[in-house]
From TrEMBL:
Enzyme Commission number(s) of this protein: 3.1.3.7
Organism whose genome encodes this protein: Buddleja alternifolia
Residues binding Mg(2+), per UniProt: 77, 144, 147, 313
GO biological process: inositol phosphate metabolic process; phosphatidylinositol phosphate biosynthetic process; sulfate assimilation
Keyword Magnesium: yes
Gene Ontology terms, MF aspect: 3'(2'),5'-bisphosphate nucleotidase activity; metal ion binding
InterPro entries reported in the protein's UniProt record: DPNP, Inositol_monoP_metal-BS, Inositol_monoP_superfamily, Inositol_monophosphatase-like, Inositol_monophosphatase_CS
Assigned keywords, A-Z: Hydrolase, Magnesium, Metal-binding
Cofactor: Mg(2+)
Name of protein: 3'(2'),5'-bisphosphate nucleotidase
Classification via NCBIfam families: bisphos_HAL2
Function: Converts adenosine 3'-phosphate 5'-phosphosulfate (PAPS) to adenosine 5'-phosphosulfate (APS) and 3'(2')-phosphoadenosine 5'-phosphate (PAP) to AMP.
PROSITE patterns membership: IMP_1, IMP_2
Length: 376
């Protein structure tokens, strides 16, 4: 069976994403506590990059340990150019600490920790090992260490996304969402109340969602509390898309930043289709998670013309939605093409993810009707 082919890969990937979430939570808490009033100062930026590089190093190291460095290809967002400069030595030291503190916890996640702390050059090596550009042949891991940088800085939603592409198709997806609780309606509740990390009760832990292609099943696990052991399946629950197909009742999500997606174009489409609710604006791939979990029905993303979407911003989320029963295509109704390197080449205008066929068909029709008069 197709989904049994990646059993070990999935098992390792899920555990590694849990570890990465643990790392991110620690850095995000530090960020919020040191600078609670100021959003996005220079210090915040450096903490964000600490999280990005540290997650990339951790994931790269753990995958190499599990499968052999020579056997794996990793496509990921970060490189080591900035980090290797002399003026980055303080950040580099923070990365080394964060990675080693995280790797020391590996046994809690059922993985092996290194015999001794990794050296700076081992960590730089692990980061720069993620230099693959993917493509149509062979297996490639695809990693976005911290997706939704702005959400991360603001104590809001962000995600750790790890997927695998095999011969051009996404076959495995894991999405860690540290601020998206497993409880029903976790996203709406949190967004409406605009809770900050410091205010979230420890019982409301985040979630990790995962799936494999062809399984027809997407799963969700809670993150584990401090000092708890991760034990497979770690209370995994099946998740499923919403059955709502009436546009008047549907919720649609989109990026918070209008530079990442044209809010006025999507408002026009929403109006044409008869969507009534206000858009749910959420940072990061948590939007895909919301569709897969049935908390929203539609995700629209229309970047400005000329912007090329990157595979790590979509791979894990797209598969989660599809295996939970939903549909994801470009605005022309064609599947996204993950086989052509780091970009979603050939993407027709924008991305539409839906809980079901009926809504999807209506949206494609509305985009078609609105396009000529838009400025995109
Ligand atoms: N002009 C643009 N248009 C569309 N997406 C963009 C963009 N600039 C950056 N992005 C991508 O949008 C992602 C965030 O998505 P969202 O807006 O849905 O939260 C970013 O991921 P990172 O935060 O990992 O850099 C980045 O890759
Ligand atoms: Mg991203």
């Amino acid at each position: 069976m197709e989904n049994q082919k990646y059993t070990k890969e999935l098992n390792v990937a899920v555990r590694v994403v849990h570890m990465a979430c643990f790392l991110c939570e620690k850095v995000q808490k530090q960020l919020i506590s040191t600078n609670s009033d100021q959003v996005k100062s220079k210090d915040d930026d450096s903490l964000v990059t600490v999280a990005d590089w540290s997650v990339q190093a951790t994931v790269s190291w753990m995958l190499s340990e599990a499968f052999g460095a020579e056997n794996i290809s990793i496509v990921a967002e970060e490189d080591v150019q900035t980090l290797s400069k002399s003026e980055s030595s303080a950040i580099l030291a923070m990365v080394v600490t964060a990675v080693n503190e995280c790797l020391a916890e590996a046994p809690r996640f059922g993985l092996q920790r290194p015999d001794k702390a990794l050296t700076t050059s081992q960590i730089l090596n692990a980061i720069s090992q993620c230099n693959s550009t993917g493509g149509p042949l062979g297996q490639h891991w695809v990693l976005d260490p911290v997706d939704g940088t702005l959400g991360f800085v603001r104590g809001d939603q962000y995600a750790v996304a790890l997927a695998m592409i095999d011969n051009g198709e996404v076959v495995l997806g894991v999405l860690g969402c540290p601020n998206y609780p497993v409880k029903d309606d976790g996203l709406n509740r949190k967004s409406q109340q605009n809770l900050r990390v410091s205010e979230i009760s420890s019982a409301e832990v985040g979630s990790v969602m995962y799936t494999t292609k062809g399984s027809g099943k997407s799963w969700m696990q809670p993150l584990i509390h401090r000092d708890m052991m991760f034990e497979w399946p770690n209370s995994a629950k099946l998740i499923r898309v919403s059955s709502v197909d009436d546009p008047a009742l549907a919720t649609f999500c989109e990026p918070v930043e209008k530079t990442n997606s044209d809010h006025s174009f999507t408002a026009g489409v929403a109006n044409t289709v008869g969507l009534r609710k206000k858009p749910l604006r959420v940072y990061s791939m948590v939007k895909y998670a919301a569709i897969a979990r049935g908390e929203a029905e539609i995700y629209m993303r229309f970047a400005r013309s000329g912007y090329k979407e990157k595979i790590w911003d979509h791979a894990a989320g797209v598969l989660l939605v599809q295996e939970a029963g939903g549909m994801v295509t470009d605005a022309g109704g064609r599947p996204l093409d993950f086989s052509r390197g780091i970009y979603l080449e050939g993407l027709d205008r924008g991305i539409i993810a839906c809980s079901g066929f009926k809504l999807h068909e209506k949206l494609i029709g509305a985009v078609y009707a609105s396009w000529e008069s838009s400025n995109l």
